[in-house]
């Protein structure tokens, strides 16, 4: 009887571990792009149609960031995406604290590092350069 309970518990635990893992190659590839020194925290799947009005970045999510912690934000474009995924991180005062797009040079970075100076809720806003339609993935990691 004990043997049966042990075997049943083992398979139940194995099923739960397997359920928590993703088979999505795109997510795995993007997480690997963050680097060996980064520990995965969260990902955001972005899929946007063509923008009708120019303005703020369209995909918005809030995330709690902690003081004295170094974060890495990695942006990956899906193969069918027409534009490059960009990110702005705004603090509680709605001020951009870091961006993956340099408006002066037009350069887009595939990842950016940010050392948080103040704990709080930050708004992550994603879009595509020049606001075309597209899909991609934003990955948030902690740098060791």
In short:
With 144 residues, the protein is of the alpha+beta class. 19% of the residues lie in helices and 44% in strands. It has helices spanning 2-19, 25-33, and strands spanning 38-48, 59-65, 70-77, 85-90, 96-99, 101-102, 107-108, 111-115, 120-128, 134-143.
What does this structure look like?
This protein is an alpha+beta fold. The protein has a single domain, classed as Sandwich (Jelly Rolls), CATH 2.60.120. 19% of the residues lie in helices and 44% in strands. The chain contains two helices and ten strands; from the N terminus they run H-H-E-E-E-E-E-E-E-E-E-E. It has helices at 2-19, 25-33, and strands at residues 38-48, 59-65, 70-77, 85-90, 96-99, 101-102, 107-108, 111-115, 120-128, 134-143. A four-stranded antiparallel beta sheet has the order 1-10-3-8. Strands 2-9-4-5 form a four-stranded antiparallel beta sheet, with no helix packed on it. The longest helix is centred in the N-terminal third of the chain and has 18 residues, at 2-19. The N and C termini lie far apart (46 Å). Residues 14-22 have low confidence and may be disordered.
Q: Just name the CATH architecture.
A: Sandwich
Shape: globular
Overall residue-averaged pLDDT value: 85
Count structural domains: 1
Strand order of the largest sheet: 1-10-3-8
Q: Beta-strand level of the residues, as a percent range?
A: 35-45%
Element order: H for helix, E for strand: HHEEEEEEEEEE
Main beta-sheet strand count, sense and barrel state: 4 strands, antiparallel
Gyration radius, in Å? 19 Å
């Amino acid at each position: 009887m004990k043997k049966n309970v042990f075997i049943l518990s083992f398979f139940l635990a194995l099923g739960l571990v397997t359920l928590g893992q993703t088979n999505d190659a795109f997510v795995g590839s993007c997480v690997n792009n963050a680097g060996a020194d980064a520990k995965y925290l969260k990902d955001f799947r972005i899929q946007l149609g063509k923008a009708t009005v120019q303005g703020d970045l369209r995909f918005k999510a809030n995330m709690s960031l902690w003081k004295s912690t170094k974060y890495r934000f990695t942006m990956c474009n899906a193969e069918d995406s027409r534009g490059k995924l960009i990110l702005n991180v705004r603090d509680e005062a709605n001020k951009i604290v870091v961006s993956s797009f340099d408006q002066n040079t037009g350069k887009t970075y595939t990842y950016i590092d940010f050392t948080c100076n103040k704990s709080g809720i930050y708004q992550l806003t994603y879009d595509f350069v020049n606001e075309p339609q597209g899909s991609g993935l934003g990955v948030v990691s902690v740098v060791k």
